[in-house]
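> example.struct
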C-alpha cells in the first residue's frame, strides 16, 4: 500500500474569445500581433483611466458556471487583487474575491471500461490502449467558484548570451546581458478562472476533468481553449496526505488521513495535459522524499521546467490576506434578477454529456462510439447531418458511425452528402469470375502453408487472415462472405 495519498486541486484559466478586452475597447485578438499595438490608457494602467466592464464576457462567464452545474448568486462584485509584478501595470488586478459570478458546482468523471467498449481490439492492435485501463467509475469533482478577471501582460525573458530574435530585428548587438521585455497586448483580455476543491487523487482524474472543461467551453463557443496559444492555462495545487495516522510532521502534530495536509504547492501556468501529469508526478515524488524525513514541504509557488520534467521554486505561496483584496471602487456591484439567470440558461446549447447520452439512446450507439462522435461539437453536428442524407440511400446510423470513426475522413473538406456518396460507393460489391476466384484461392493457400496447418489444428480464426489475402488480389471490393465460403470448401476437403 502507498504511504501517501495525493490531494490535488486545480485552477484553470480560460481566455474568452470576445472581440474586445475586459474593461476597454481594445481588440482582444492579440495572438501573433506586433507587441504593444493593442493597448490604450485603460489596459496600460495609466492614471485616470476608468474600466468599463465587457457585458458579453460576463454573460459567458455565467454560462460557463451554469454548464459546470454552479449556483449563480443574485449579487456579485469585482475586487482589486493587489500585487506588484512587471506584467501588472496598475499594481493590482481587477478580479473577484468573495462574491464571484458562480459558486458550488461540480463535474462528474466517468471513464468507460475500454475492455468492454466497441473498438477496443482496434485500439489494442494500434498500441493506443492506456497503461491503466479504467473501468466504469463515477466521481464528483466539486467546483468551488467560477470568477471573472482580466489577464496580465506577457513577459519575455532573455538570459545571458542567448541569441535574441528581438534584438536581431532591432539591429542591436548580441551580448551577455539578461533582461525582460513586456508585451501589453494580452493585458486586460477577459479571463475566467475555474477553481476546484482538492478532490483529485490521480493524474488520470486530473486529465479527464481538464478534457471535460476544455470540451465544455468549446461547446459553448466562448473560447477556443487552445493551450499552445495560451487560451487555457492550468495550475495544479498538490500536497500529500499520509495513509498512516501515526505519521507526524515538523510540528509534531499527527496528520490524519481525513484532514487536508498542512501545506500545498502550486505549479503555475502549464499549457499541456501531458505537462500537468509530469508536474504532478514530479511533485508527488519530491514531496514524498521530504515527508519521509519527517519534514513538511514548504508552501510555495513553483514553475514547471519542460526540459527536465521537473519543478523549481519561484516564491513563497501567498495567502488571500497578502493580496489585500477590497471591492473595486470604479465598478458598481451586479444585482441579477431570476429572469436574467433563466435567460442565460435558455441560451445554453446541448452539452457534451447530454449529447453523448442522447446519441446512445436515440441512435443506439455504444458508449465508445457516442463518446468518439461527441468529442467535438462540429463532429457531432456533422454526424447528425450525415444521418439525414444517409436515409435517402437506405444507410443505417451504424454504417455512418463506423465510417466516420474507422476511416476518419476530413470532414472539414467533405460535405455530409459527399460522405454518404462515398459510403454507398465503397459498399458496392463487384461481380467475381468463379474461375478467377478459384485460381487466386489456390495461390493464396499455396503461399500460406502455416495458415493451413493452423486451421487443421483447430485455429479457425485464421480463416479471416486468408480471406484478407484473397481480397487484396482484386482491384474492386468483392463479397467477403463468398470468399470465406469458397476457402472453407477447399480447406475442408
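> example.seq
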Amino acid at each position: 500500500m502507498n504511504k501517501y495519498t495525493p490531494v490535488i486541486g486545480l485552477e484553470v484559466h480560460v481566455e474568452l474569445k470576445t472581440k474586445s478586452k475586459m474593461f476597454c475597447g481594445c481588440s482582444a485578438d492579440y495572438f501573433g500581433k506586433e507587441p504593444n499595438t493593442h493597448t490604450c490608457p485603460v489596459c496600460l494602467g495609466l492614471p485616470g483611466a476608468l474600466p468599463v466592464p465587457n457585458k458579453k464576457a460576463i454573460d459567458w462567464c455565467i454560462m460557463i458556471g451554469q454548464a459546470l452545474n454552479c449556483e449563480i448568486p443574485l449579487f456579485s462584485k469585482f475586487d482589486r487583487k493587489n500585487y506588484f509584478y512587471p506584467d501588472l501595470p496598475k499594481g493590482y488586478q481587477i478580479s473577484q474575491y468573495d462574491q464571484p459570478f458562480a459558486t458550488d458546482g461540480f463535474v462528474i468523471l466517468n471513464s468507460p471500461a475500454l475492455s468492454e467498449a466497441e473498438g477496443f481490439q482496434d485500439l489494442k492492435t494500434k498500441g493506443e490502449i492506456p497503461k491503466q485501463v479504467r473501468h466504469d467509475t463515477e466521481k464528483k469533482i466539486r467546483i468551488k467558484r467560477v470568477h471573472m478577471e482580466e489577464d496580465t501582460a506577457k513577459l519575455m525573458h532573455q538570459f545571458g548570451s542567448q541569441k535574441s530574435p528581438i534584438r536581431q530585428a532591432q539591429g542591436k548587438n548580441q551580448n551577455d546581458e539578461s533582461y525582460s521585455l513586456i508585451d501589453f497586448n494580452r493585458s486586460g483580455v477577459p479571463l475566467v478562472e475555474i477553481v476546484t476543491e482538492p478532490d483529485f487523487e490521480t493524474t488520470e482524474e486530473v486529465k479527464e476533468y481538464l478534457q471535460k472543461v476544455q470540451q465544455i467551453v468549446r461547446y459553448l463557443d466562448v473560447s477556443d481553449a487552445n493551450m499552445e496559444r495560451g487560451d487555457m492555462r492550468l495550475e495544479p495545487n498538490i500536497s500529500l496526505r499520509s495513509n498512516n495516522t501515526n505519521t507526524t510532521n515538523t510540528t509534531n502534530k499527527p496528520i490524519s488521513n481525513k484532514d487536508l495536509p498542512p501545506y500545498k504547492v502550486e505549479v503555475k501556468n502549464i499549457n499541456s495535459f501531458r505537462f500537468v501529469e509530469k508536474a504532478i508526478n514530479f511533485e508527488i515524488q519530491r514531496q514524498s522524499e521530504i515527508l519521509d524525513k519527517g519534514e513538511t514541504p514548504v508552501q510555495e509557488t513553483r514553475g514547471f521546467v519542460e526540459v527536465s520534467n521537473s519543478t523549481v521554486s519561484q516564491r513563497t505561496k501567498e495567502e488571500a490576506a497578502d493580496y489585500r483584496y477590497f471591492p473595486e471602487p470604479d465598478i458598481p456591484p451586479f444585482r441579477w434578477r431570476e429572469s436574467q439567470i433563466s435567460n442565460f440558461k435558455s441560451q445554453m446549447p446541448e452539452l457534451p454529456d447530454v449529447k453523448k447520452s442522447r446519441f446512445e439512446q436515440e441512435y443506439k450507439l455504444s458508449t465508445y462510439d457516442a463518446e468518439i462522435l461527441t468529442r467535438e461539437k462540429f463532429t457531432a453536428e456533422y454526424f447528425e447531418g450525415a444521418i439525414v442524407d444517409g436515409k435517402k440511400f437506405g444507410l443505417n446510423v451504424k454504417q455512418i458511425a463506423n465510417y466516420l470513426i474507422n476511416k476518419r475522413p476530413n470532414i472539414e473538406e467533405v460535405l455530409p452528402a459527399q460522405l454518404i456518396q462515398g459510403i454507398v460507393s465503397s459498399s458496392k460489391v463487384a461481380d467475381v469470375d468463379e474461375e478467377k476466384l478459384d485460381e487466386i484461392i489456390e495461390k493464396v493457400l499455396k503461399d500460406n502453408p502455416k495458415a493451413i496447418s493452423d486451421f487443421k489444428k483447430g485455429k479457425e480464426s485464421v480463416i479471416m487472415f486468408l480471406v484478407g489475402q484473397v481480397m487484396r488480389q482484386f482491384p474492386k471490393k468483392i463479397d467477403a462472405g463468398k470468399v470465406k465460403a469458397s476457402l472453407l470448401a477447399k480447406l475442408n476437403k
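> remarks
The longest strand covers residues 137-150.
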